[in-house]
Amino acid sequence: MMRFQHISHLLALGIIPILIALFVSMVYWRKKKLKSLGDEQLINKQLLGFIPGRNTLRFVLLSLALLVIVIGWANLQMGAKTEKVQRKGVDVIVALDVSKSMLARDIQPDRLTRAKQLVQSMIDKMGNDRVGLVVFAGRSYLQVPLTIDYSAMKMMLENVNPDLVPTQGTVISDAVDLAMRSFSQKEKKYKSLVIISDGEDHDESAIEKVREAAEAGVIVHTVGIGSPQGTTIYDPETQSIKLDDNGDAVISRLNQDALRDIAAAGRGSYSLLRNTNNVADKLIREIDGMEQKSLGAVVFTDFSSYFQYFLGIGLMLLVVEWLLPGRKKKDKNLAV
Prior knowledge:
This protein is α/β, with parallel strands linked by helices. 40% of the residues lie in helices and 22% in strands. It has 2 domains: 2-81 and 302-323, no CATH class; 87-294, von Willebrand factor, type A domain (Rossmann fold). A hairpin with a 3-residue loop joins β5 and β6.
């Protein structure tokens, strides 16, 4: 197993495309300037110390050095020691509503952002449970299959937005169906589904689908996000309030009754999201109180680091770049 100890450091690689764009712009600017003065090749020959391709080679060496140094900074590691451990937990799938009504700002900064914060808080409080992510609106998509890689789950969660599901609506039944297919089909317990939604415009078949899930051993919890009074929806495409066909502002309201009914049918609990930490604690208590299965697995308990090799290569590239001749040697036949 390989991993980066500090994976966030890899974000520094984003500077390389910027440097490439700046270098290409500089090359085109230089060519344009030389052409305005006359024949480009003739002018280059007259420039003292001009070596064709020298600047490009130096840039390539510096870019490669930056690349490997950043990789070394992130510290690539490989599992060196394994240990058999006994783990117990349950499978938890979070079904997250990403319809455009989740952009409403009756809960700050907006419903979707707070929902994502709730999921992150739940992940931080989990121990050995496997977790997966389904996003839904008019259709449902599996974003993260069941995994114990919590860091990967968090990374995927950061990119969740309404654009992931172009079909609008709140089809909870489709999300339940997809979650059921994503769970193990061999067991009729150890499974929980957490639906986070404003419950607005939900489909009528949701209750029936949740009852079927409960009969198959899945405990369904719901979390309501928003306010019953409702508020307008900010449309990022128009950068203004969303309007209906009549030109009136669209008001999105939390449907608590629907979400309570779904939780009751799923033999779970309903929570209104106000304090993120409190709701996360409540859900984790519910999940920890379930019967748990053995998840014995081999895990890596020691890792070997390879940052020094990357830093060494980076240093070597910098030395090579430094040793490149800065200018041509003077012609010996020229008079002094």
